């Protein structure tokens, strides 16, 4: 719903909020196309018709773009992936990229890392401050999750050395994950990963690129605009 970005999202979806005159959606589309992807899927909910009209007006940036329509029910990060299954197909890995981030990550490097590990999924992570962390063992295999503010912790694997990293909202997923999903309706991809992590390798890719910013709040958007100027 883009509630964190209010009042920018009072009359438009978060994806169409602009950063220095360019919508977050256009920035995300151009970023993911660094991989020369075969297809782009945009999931819509809040003011979804505006996104459809925007893409039509831009002629889909001359890229193969399809819509996954969540206007009837917002499905969260895991449910959104499951709903897009008929479009995604079962033959190729897919990149999931949150629209409200600004990043200089090398997506081709991420893709090569993912391919070389042979895991179920690869999450881009960074060493940054947050309350909620993904927990990895020394081989960078997902082992759990912890909230340092509340003390809550969920461990899927035991290890002597565990390291906290913050998820960057960028991930590559193998289509075989669909056969492992038992969740229905609205659910988070983190919830799914923690259930699967004990039996399947989900890797972390340590992103050390120079730029990563969350653009989900007005003050964060203003900071990014100031930086880019």
Topology:
Elements: E1 18-19, E2 22-23, H1 24-32, E3 40-44, H2 48-57, E4 65-69, H3 76-83, H4 85-88, E5 94-97, E6 101-103, H5 107-117, E7 121-126, E8 132-136, E9 142-147, E10 153-155, E11 163-173, H6 189-196, E12 202-206, E13 212-214, H7 218-228
Parallel strand pairs: 3-4, 7-12
Antiparallel strand pairs: 1-2, 5-11, 6-13, 7-11, 8-9, 8-11, 9-10
Helix pairs in contact: 3-6
Outline the structure in words.
It is a single chain. The radius of gyration is 17 Å and the shape is globular. By secondary structure, the chain is of the alpha+beta class. The chain has a single domain, classed as Alpha-Beta Complex (Spore Coat Polysaccharide Biosynthesis Protein SpsA, Chain A), CATH 3.90.550.10. About 25% of the residues lie in helices and about 25% in strands. Helix 3 (about 75-85) crosses helix 6. The strands form 4 sheets. Strands 5, 7, 8, 9, 10, 11 and 12 form a 7-stranded mixed sheet that branches. It has a two-stranded antiparallel sheet with strand order 1-2. A two-stranded parallel sheet has the order 3-4. The model has no long low-confidence stretch (mean pLDDT about 95).
Report the count of strand segments. Answer: 13
Q: How many distinct domains?
A: 1
CATH names the topology as: Spore Coat Polysaccharide Biosynthesis Protein SpsA, Chain A
Class of secondary structure makeup: alpha+beta
State the helix count: 7
CA-atom Rg in angstroms: 17 Å
Shape by Cα distribution: globular
Broad CATH class: Alpha Beta
CATH superfamily: Spore Coat Polysaccharide Biosynthesis Protein SpsA, Chain A
**Multimerization state:** single chain
Helix content: 25-40%
Low-confidence stretches: none
The average pLDDT value, as a whole number, equals: 94
State the CATH architecture: Alpha-Beta Complex
Largest sheet: 7 strands, mixed
Q: In percent terms, what proportion of residues is strand?
A: 25-35%
